[in-house]
Write a structure and sequence with these properties.
Helix content is about 25%, strand content about 35%. The protein is α+β, with helices and mostly antiparallel strands and about 80 residues long.
Length: about 80
Amino acid sequence: MAVSIRLRRIGKNPKGKPYFRVSVMDERKGRDARALEEVGFYNPLTGESKLKKDKIDAWIKKGAQPSVTVKSLIKKIS
């Protein structure tokens, strides 16, 4: 099973307030599918993000690939 760490939108749609959870998901599933694990959140309006770095590192060691956006969020907290 191919696993990725990516954003999952939970905020209001379409003009509302976007808000995302950083989730570990099967790559074959859609954006709003059930996640394997939630490892943080991201609010693009305020730039606020809280990531569980230890859990993200554990998933990367297991072979999960972070998306481009999640990579940039990880760089910001490091």
